Predict the 3D structure of the following.
Amino acid sequence: MVISILGHGVVGKGVWEMLQGNPLYTVRNVLVKKGEKTADFMVESFDTILHDDSELVIECMGGIDPAFEFTSKCMEAGKSIISSNKALVAAHGIDLLNIARRKNLSFLFSAACGGAIPILQNLCLARQTDSIVWAGGILNGTTNFILDNMDRNGLGFDEALAQAKALGYAEADPTADISGMDTMRKIMLISMVAYDVLPNSDYSIEGIQSVSAADFSVAAKLGYTIRLIGRCGLADSGRLYAYVQPFLCRKGSLYSSILTNTNLAQYHGTNAGDMSFLGQGAGRYPTASAILRDVSSVTNGQKQILSDKCLVGFACNNAKECVMKYFVRSTGAGFSALSDKVKVEKVLCEENGVSFAVTEPVSVKDMHEAAAEARRKGNAVFFAALQEEA
C-alpha cells in the first residue's frame, strides 16, 4: 500500500519512522511546512500529495484548519484517511464519515482518543454484542501529571504546570488541557463510537484551573485525592449525558493509582461489566503505534469505526439526571453565593474566609451552573464530585 503523511511533527515523524522497512507499505510523500524540507521524501505543497499515487493519507497536522480542507479533498480524490486529530474529528468527523461512505473509503481515527490505548476500536467491537452503559476515564496526561504532582509532591498548581511544560507533557499554551476541553473532545469521540451521537452542545466541562494545594490538603484528610475524569453514558431515561469535571477519588482506588501522565480509559457494558485500559495517552511512539494499528485495519478491509446512524449536532442531556455529592471550596460570600439548587450537607472547615463543605446530592448540570454563577459574582470556587467506587 502506498501512503502519504500530512505533517512531520511529533506524531508524524513517529509514523514515518515506524513505517520504514515495512515491506507492506511505501511512504510516498510527507507534507511539511514551507521552509522545513530537509529530505527528498518531504514536500511543501499539499497538491503534491493530493495528486500522488497514495491510496491512504495519514493526517498528523493537528487543528481544524487546514486539516479538514486537506483530508476532505484527499477523500474526494479517492484516498482513505487515518487521523490522530481529536479536534478535527470532533468538529468534522461526521462530514468525513459521509464522504468516506459515498466514496467507499476508510476513515479511522482510533489514535485521536487515548493515544496507544485501544479504547475506540474496542468500543466499536463491544457495541456489536453489548450495550455500553457509560464510558470515559482519565483521558488527559497533562492534567493527571499536574494533579499527581500536587498530591504526592506538595506542589502548587503553577509549579506543577511549569514542571509539566519543562518535561514536554504540557504545551506552551496548555489551555485545552487544563480547561478540560481536550478531555471533552475525547469524550465526544467516545460517544460517537458508543452511542452514534456527537454531543457538540449542552455538555458540562470543569477543568483543573481552580484547584489549589489547600484542596489537596483537605481532601487528603478525608482520605481522597483529586483526578480529572470525563464520562458519557445513558441516563435511566435513555438520554445521553456527557461531562468533564474533577473528582475526589478515594486513596487506594483505581483512579487514585493513575500516576504521572498515564491515562485510564474505561467502559461499562451490560454484559461485560467494567473494562479498563491503562497506558500512554499521548506521545510520539504511543500515538504512532495506534495509527499503525489503524493502517493494519485499513489493510484488512475495515472502513470505519462509526456507524451509518451517527448523528451530528445532537444536544446531550447535560447530565441533568446524573446526581452526586460534591466537595466544594468557596471564598467571598461562601456557599450563600451558590444557587439554591445546591444545598450544603456538611461544612468541613472554615478559615480566613475560605470554606470547605460537602453538598447534598445535586445534578452535574446544577452544580456546574451554580459554580459559574458564583464566579460571575466574584467568588472563587473549586468543586469536585465525590467518587465512591473502589
DSSP finds twelve helices and 18 strands in the chain.
